[in-house]
Amino acid sequence: MKIAIVGYGNLGKTFAGSFVKSHFIRKEDIFVYTRTLPKREDCFLIPLNNFSTDHFPFTEEIDILILAVKPQEFEKVAKVLHDKLNKEIIVLSVMAGVSIQKIANLLQVNKIVRSMPNLGTQIGQGMTVFSASDTIDRKELFIIQNLINTTGKSIYVENEGMLNPATAVSGSGPAYVFYFMNAMIQAAKELGFSDAEAELLVHQTFLGAVSLKASLGLSNDELIKKVASKGGTTEQAILIFNKNSLSSIISKAIEKANLKSIELGD
Q1: pLDDT digits over 47-61, tens only?
Q2: All domains of the chain, ordered by start, with CATH?
Q3: For the Pyrroline-5-carboxylate reductase catalytic N-terminal domain, which residue ranges apply (predicted)?
C-alpha cells in the first residue's frame, strides 16, 4: 500500500512519523508533496526522493492520499491534484471545516474520509473522530481506521455533522485541560508554592489522575468519592464548583465551540 501526504506541517509529519514507527507502512511507500523540503531529522528515514516540492509526481501508484494542508490552501492545492488522481484512490482529510462534498467536488474523487484529530496525535496519544463518504466499503474503512490509530485512538461516526461536536469536545479539549491546569497552578502559587513547585504539583496530579482512571476502569463519580470523603477538604472544593455551576459553564463553553465549528464549516 502506497500513501501520499500533501502538506508537511505538524499533522503531515505526525502521520509520516507514526506510520514509520508503527511499521504499518513501509517508509519507501510514503510520498510527500510539500512547499519546502524538510530537515533530514523530520524525514523519518523516508527516502529524500520521495519528497516533491514543485509538482505532484505521485499518480497511479498511490492508494491513499492524506490531505494535511491548511483549509484556506485547499482550493489552490486541489487545482494541482484533481486531474492527477486515479478514481479508486481514498482521500483522508485532516483539514478542519472542509466537507466531504467540497473535497469530492474539487478533487473529482468518490472515496473520501474526513477526520478531526487533536493535539495528542503528535505523541501517539491522539483522539480522532472520522466520517466517510457512502462509497467507502467496510474493508477500506478498516484500513483507514488502522492508519489513524497509529496516532492514538479513534471513533467512526456515520453522520458527518458529528465532526462539529467532536471538534468542540476532543479537538479543542486539550486547551480546556491546559486552561484548568493554569487555574490550579495559579491557585497553588497564591497559597505559597514557587512557580516550579506549582507546575510540578499540578502536572503530576493530572498525569497520575488520568493514569489511575485508565488503570482502575472506575467511573469518574466513583473516583471522586475515593478522594472526596465526607466533611473533608476535597468536598469543600467540590461544593464551590457545584455552587458556581462549573459543570454548566463547561457545557455552555463546549456548546459555543460547537456552534463556531458549524459556522466555520458553512
Answers
A1: 888 888 877 776 668
A2: 3-158 (3.40.50.720), 173-265 (1.10.3730.10)
A3: 2-97
